[in-house]
Amino acid sequence: MHGRRLALDGGTPVRDTMLDHRRGAAALAVAERAAVQEVLDSQVLFRYGASRLGTVERFEGRVTELLSVRHALATSSGTAALKAGLAALGVGPGDEVIVPAVTFIATANAVVVAGAVPVFCDLDDSLGLDPTHLGTLVNERTAAVIPVHLENVVCDMEGVLAVTRQHGLPVLEDACQAMGSTYRGAAAGTLGELGCFSLQLEKNITAGEGGVLVTGDAALHLRATRYTDQGGQFVTGRGGTRGGDVDEPFIGENLRMTELAGAIAGVQLGRLPDLLEGMRSAKRKILAGIGDRSGLMPRWIPDREGDGGSSCLWYAPDAELAARFVSALQAEGIPSARLYDGKTVYANPAYVARRTVSAKRSPWVNHPTDVSYRIGMCPRAEDLAARAVGVAVAPGFTANDVEDVVEAVLKVADALL
Description:
Blueprint: H1 24-27, H2 30-42, H3 55-67, E1 71-75, H4 78-88, E2 96-100, H5 106-113, E3 117-121, H6 131-137, E4 142-145, H7 157-167, E5 172-174, E6 182-183, E7 186-187, E8 194-198, E9 211-215, H8 218-227, H9 259-290, E10 297-298, E11 311-315, H10 319-331, E12 336-337, H11 349-352, H12 379-387, E13 388-392, H13 399-416
Parallel strand pairs: 2-3, 2-4, 5-8
Antiparallel strand pairs: 1-9, 6-7, 8-9, 10-11, 11-13, 12-13
Helix pairs in contact: 2-9, 3-9, 4-5, 4-8, 6-7, 9-13, 10-13
């Protein structure tokens, strides 16, 4: 392999076409079409009403069984699940919520939309919240902590929970990228007070869009359910009522899942165990094939047995090399990316400027302290994000696909390191 010219530099690529790295989306088939057709034939696409099919309710019930959790609430998106979780906890203006410095921007956006201020925490080598830094950020305004399980790897929840329990803080797990992953035998999303999942197109299972909020607390579940349905204080649909006797009236919004999405999600949920096993098997083979020959430092995974297996991630020696490594892998036909373009959430111009659609509605206005964002505030996160090299792993990878990934990674490493 030594001396082979990279495709990026005009050489022959390992693959002529990009390797398909879809997860649940690649498994969409006859069963999903039949489930959707059943809903269409019923002519009742709304989840409430006397003549409903109940596809969303059945999906929620199956989620509770799969994850061994008491309550599940289906929502219109993973972001909606985050919003419902924050609403259930009563997070609002004047509050602060601690979130990771590197995550999909929706994690922090949900906090801002709730009227609270996101406080960014540094990361450890798992790309999860660093418990040591987390402990230094807690103050009297901290209302909740949102750990994020990026790419099916559950972060150091033992360390995170040690801090939150010491201070009596609720945990809302962002497990949007980790449905089915586990930590020491417990399902991701069930370790804190609440957990969120996404069913967006690129997730483990998909309904195109959609989300789920889970909890073991009946009161939190009721508050979240009512919040996603305009507060649950009125009748919608013929014969349909929700909310029961309202002893705590409040205003909500519409974050409901439709019966069409519920039908697809229900079928996809049944595919999840096989999809996870496919990814885990492919990842094991890729890592075994590469061994320690790549010269890259592997991501730390707190619980390897619980890893969902949807990506292989390493750290290059520096940011410039990481960017070239990713571009080189892409040219070889391997799905590779830098972690959120190698940047933290607070590097986004909207966060630098602390700008919302209306300055009057900005959570930073009249906040007790001046929470500002700047490059350098979470140095470890900035460094890791800049040096991360990720390769997507899909459940449908064949033996030849695995060999192509191994060959490409070693080819690029041999040329660049």
